[in-house]
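Technical note accompanying the year-one report. For the benefit of new consortium partners, we illustrate the data format agreed upon in the data management plan: each record pairs a sequence with a C-alpha cell string. No post-processing was applied to the example shown here.
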Amino acid sequence: MEFYSGIPPLLVQFFLTVAFSFVVGLEFRSYHHDNDYKLHFGSTRTFVLIGVLGFILYTLDASRQLFVAGLLLLGGLLLVFYWRLSAERMFSMFSTIFALLIYLIGPIACTFPNWFLVLFIVVLVLVLGKKTLIHRISDQLAIDEIVTLATFLIISGVILPLLPDRPIAPMLPVTYYRVWLAVIIVSGFSYLSYLVNSYFFKSRSLLITGLLGGLYSSTAATVVIGRRAYGLDSVSGRGVSPALIMATTMMYLRLLAIIFVFDRSVALQLLMPFSAIIFISLLTIIGLLTVRKHAPELHNASDIKHPLELSTAILFALLFMLFTFLTEYVTSNYGSHGLKSLAIIVGFTDIDPFILSLLSGKFTISDPAIVSAVILASGSNNLLKAAYAIALARNKSILFAAAWLIFLFAISILYAYKYAW
C-alpha cells in the first residue's frame, strides 16, 4: 500500500489509459478478424495512440479546448474513413463510433472512479465479443416488447416525478405520489415475471406456470391451469394440484416482498404467518410430486399478456383510490371490525390495490389491524381461486388443491380473529 501511495496519480491514470486502450484494441482486432472485414479503422497500436492522445490533450489544458479540438480532428478523420466505407458499400458506423469511445478512456481515467473505468471497458469488450448473442437477443425481441419497456419507463421515470406528494382529498388520505408508486411496484413485479415467463420458459410445465404465473397474478395463473385441466383423467391430471398450490404459494411470497417495500413493520409481522404458509405449501407440493409416480408431464401453451398497458395502470390507480375511500369510510364509522368484513369481501376482487392502500394511506388503525386485514383478504382470495379451479376444471384433478385453498382460507380467518387482535 505504501508503494502504491507513492506513485503519482497522473502516472497511474496514464498507465490505466494505455493498458485498457491496448486491451480493447486487441479485442477490436479479433472482432474484425472473426467477421472477415476488409476495411477497418487502424489496429491495436492505433487504439493505444488514440487513447494516449485523448489523455494528453485532456490533462494538458485545463480549459479542455485542446481536448475538444482533438475530438473534432479525430471526428473529421473518421468521417473521411466512413466516406471510404460508403464507397465500398459498407455503411456501418461501428468502427468510427468505437474509435471515439477509445478517445474518452483518458478523461474517464482522470475524472471518474476506477470502478467506473473498469465498467466502461467491460461494456466495450462485451459489445465486441458478444456480437452473435446481441443479434440473437435483438432478433427474438418483439417490437411490442420495446413499446412495453417504453411504457414502464414512462410510468416510472416520467409520470412519478411529476406527481405531488400531498393528500388527494380528506376522504382519500393518500398522496398522488403514493398511488402511482404502488402502480409501479406491482407492475414491476408482474412485468419481471412476465419476461421470465415469456423468454426463458417457452415450453413450460404446469408447475412452472404456477410458479411464474403466481408471481404475476395467482388468480390469472389459477384460471390458466384450471382451463388446462379440463377433460383430464385422474392419471394425466396429477400435476394440476401441485401447480395450483404453487401459484398461491408464490402469491404469498410476492405480497411479502411488495409489503416490505412499503412498510417494513407490517412485513415483519406478516413474516411468521406467511412463511409458515409458504413452507407448508412447498412441503405439500413436494409430497404430491413424489406420489404422482410416472404421470405424463403437461405443458401449458397459454400466454399471459404483459401487465404494462397504460389502461391497466390507470385502472389499478382508480381501484387503489376506491379502496382507500372505502377503507377510510369503514374505519371511521365501524372501526376494526368493519375493516375485517371489508377485507374478506375485497378478497373476491383484486387484493393488491386494497392491501397497498392500507399501507400507503394515513388511517386511524393500528399495525395489527392492517396485518389482520391483509391475512383476511389473501385468505378469502384463496376461496375465490378454489371456486375458479372447480368451475373450470370440472374433474377430480383439482380437488386436493381446492381443498388446500379452502383450508388456507379457514386458517386465515382463525389467525386473524383469534391471534392478530
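Partners are asked to follow this layout when depositing records. The chain has two domains: 2-137, 143-418.
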